[in-house]
Every structure is written in C-alpha cells, then in structure tokens.
Design goal:
The protein is an alpha/beta fold and 391 residues long. The protein folds into two domains: 124 residues, Aspartate Aminotransferase, domain 1 (Alpha-Beta Complex), CATH 3.90.1150; 232 residues, Aspartate Aminotransferase, domain 2. It is built from 15 helices and 13 strands. The strands form three sheets. It has a seven-stranded mixed sheet with strand order 3-9-8-7-6-4-5, with helices on both faces. The protein has a three-stranded mixed sheet with strand order 1-2-11. Strands 10-13-12 form a three-stranded antiparallel sheet, with helices on one face. Strand 1 and strand 2 form a beta hairpin. 47% of the residues are buried.
Length: 391
C-alpha cells in the first residue's frame, strides 16, 4: 500500500498564497444574494453597491428580463455548437445586424466575452515580423492578446502620442497595429482616439479600440467612444465592445470593415473554437440596444452623480484623477490602507472594491467607485459623507 506524501507543488502554492496575504494582495470573493443593482445583500448584510459595471442599470431591467424569457421560449437556452458549426441562430444574426447599424460599421461579429474577442482579434491580424504598439495601461486581455500573437510588442507611456509617433516612424515591421482601451478601466480616462487614428492613417496601421467601458455610456445615443469624438467608421478601425457592462447582459462584439469581419470569422481562434453564446442573451441584448439608444436621461443622471461625488470630495485629502466617465477612482496608494478603508465603508453598508497590484501599478492602490444610472443622489451622498469622515 502506497503512503501518500505531501506534495511539494501544493506546498509551493500555499507559500505563494501566504505571501499574497502578507503583502495585502490576496483577493476575496463574495457571493451576491440579490440581482445586480445598487442595493445588494452579501453574507446577510444589506449594502449599497458601488462595484458593478452595470452603468445604465439595465442588468435587472424588466424589459431585458421579459426579452430573455421570450427568447428562451423561442430558441431554447443553449446554442449547442460553435457559430461555424450549427450554433449561429437567428437571434445572433439579428443582434449582429443591429450592432453594426448602431455603431455605424458595415458588419459586426459576436463573441462570448470581451476577453475572448481581444484574444481573437490581435493574433488574427498580426504575427511574427509584425509590431503592436500598445498603451501601457491597457486591459490585461489586450496584454495577453499581444503575447499570444507573437508580434513584436512596443508599449508607449499612457496616452503619449508623441512617443507612439516616434515608435511607429522607427518601425520596419511588415504590419503595424495600434492597440488601446477607449476608456481605461481603472482610471476612467479616455484615450486620444482622434490622434491615434491620424497616426494609423499616416503610418499604414490598424487601430484596434477596446470600448468596453464607453459603449452605451458615451457618445450620441450611447453609441460609444468613437461617437463621443465624432469619429466615423474607417477601414483602419476595429472596435470591440462588451455587452456585460452598460448593455446589462453578457458577451461582446467586434465591429469593422466587412473584409476584416470575414477574416476574423475565418481566423479568430476564440471565435471558431467556442460554443456560441446563449440565444437568451442575444434576445435580451436586442431589447437592451433599444434602451441604450433611448437612454439619454440615464446618461445625464450618471453625469450628475459623478459631479456630485467629485464636488463632495473636492476639499478632502482624497484625490480623484480626471475622469468624465462612470469610473471614479479614489486614490489611496498603500495596499493595506485601501483594504482598511474599504472594510470601514463595508461596515457602514457601502460596498466599494479595493483595487491593488497587479491590476494597477505598485503604490497606486485605490477604491474604484463605479456609478450607475440606478444609483440615487441620496446613495452617493451617503458615500461622500462616509469618505469625508474617513478622510
């Protein structure tokens, strides 16, 4: 009979987990006991949540719930296969057509998540001998996508158009791709998209824009960051938008020139080898796009809440970097200090996530306040009062 011995591999993982805990970097998962919304119940405690990316408050909207139920009745729950085998249903096609029209691009392609979309786009467009020029504060999925592509990676300082121009001018790569978030998820600031597009035109490069946090929130009728800057669809532009944030459901899409979309359909591995998303989600999202287009009142309310938060903390020690979006980071710096403040807020019935490295740079730990159109001014005022007292 063989005697089991402790695994050295498990010992190593245990030691590394202990190190995460000792440096204030260990994450904790909580279980939400209520639907997504500003009022949350966690571990039997009632809280006001400032955690979610449900920027327009659509995740539990009755219209989306009704559309999802109708979609389940019409299409069932699962797609049963990848899009290219037999999983591409009428609801998916209707959603792609509607997304293309909504964003102003000739065609759109659905992906199961934003991460899968990013991991599909970049390796399909560039590879060995090519070069990607990426903002240093890009989302982790974009960083991973570049590594997966095996193209030469050149990262430029955050929003530094001058450095990017010099890098592009010095590059002899066969193909060039500029890669950026539109709204940076931890700071809430916007990429200089008009200047990036001008460089893409001048240096014959693709411009891939991750508009996860701008779609539904920015621009006329919530059409996204490109609309915010009055940028029209271009052959060089490829935009990715997620559907689990302002759209209130799940999934993602890529909008681009029809040739690019056809190429991604043929070559994006995360599209080809993934089961198509549920037709229930596609049905809900068809209703969501109507609410987004008619959602100017929601977006105006969101702007007022952001101004209320910023004005309320203006004369305190809390520093809020410039952000015209629903993402309002409160900078703290130290890992343990941000955990202490988040716990103090939690004890007062306010759920605000503490964001630490490696999600953000060392020494820039912060509270990431996510505002939604479902929040009330009174709820934001409670957060302001609590932060003022903690200051």
């Amino acid at each position: 009979m063989t005697t089991s011995r402790p695994s050295l591999l498990l010992d190593e993982l245990s030691a590394q987990l202990a190190q995460l805990d000792a440096t204030g970097l260990k994450r904790r998962r909580r279980t939400l006991e209520t639907p997504c919304g500003p009022l949350a119940r966690v571990d039997g405690r009632d809280l006001i949540s400032f955690c979610s990316n449900d920027y327009l408050g659509l995740a539990n909207d009755p219209a989306l719930v009704e559309a999802a139920c109708a979609g389940a009745q019409a299409w069932g729950v699962g797609s049963g296969a990848s899009h290219l085998v037999s999983g591409h249903m009428g609801a998916h096609q209707s959603l792609e057509d509607k997304l293309a029209a909504f964003t102003g691009f000739p065609h759109a392609l659905l992906f199961s998540t934003g991460t899968l979309a990013n991991l599909g786009i970049v390796p399909a467009l560039v590879g060995r001998g090519d070069a990607v020029f990426a903002d240093k504060l890009n989302h982790a999925s974009l960083i991973d996508a570049v590594q997966l592509s095996r193209a030469d990676s050149q990262r430029y300082p955050h929003k530094d158009v001058g450095t990017l121009e010099r890098l592009l001018a010095a590059s002899s790569a066969k193909r060039k791709l500029i890669l950026t978030d539109a709204v940076f998820s931890m700071d809430g600031d916007l990429a200089p998209l008009p200047a990036l597009l001008e460089l893409a035109e001048r240096f014959d490069a693709w411009l891939v824009v991750d508009d996860a946090h701008g779609f539904g929130v920015l621009g006329a009728q919530g059409r996204g960051s490109l609309a915010h800057f009055n940028i029209a669809a271009s052959e060089r532009l490829i935009v990715m938008g997620t559907l689990g944030k302002a759209a209130g459901a799940s999934g993602a899409f890529v909008a681009a020139h029809e040739t690019v979309i056809e190429w991604l359909l043929q070559r994006a591995r995360t599209y080809i080898f993934t089961t198509a998303s549920s037709p229930v989600m596609a049905s809900a999202l068809l209703a969501s796009l109507d609410l987004i287009a008619a959602g100017d009142a929601r977006r105006q309310h969101l702007k007022r809440l952001a101004a209320q938060l910023r004005d309320g903390l203006a004369d305190t020690r809390w520093r809020l970097p410039p952000s015209p979006t629903a993402i309002q980071p409160v900078m703290v710096g130290d890992n343990f200090e941000v955990l202490r403040i988040a716990e103090a807020l939690y004890q007062q019935g306010l759920w605000v996530p503490a964001i630490r490295p490696p999600t953000v740079a060392k020494g820039t730990a912060r509270l990431r306040v996510s505002l939604t159109a479902a929040h009330s001014a009174a709820q934001v005022e409670k957060l302001v009062d609590a932060l003022r007292k903690l200051a």
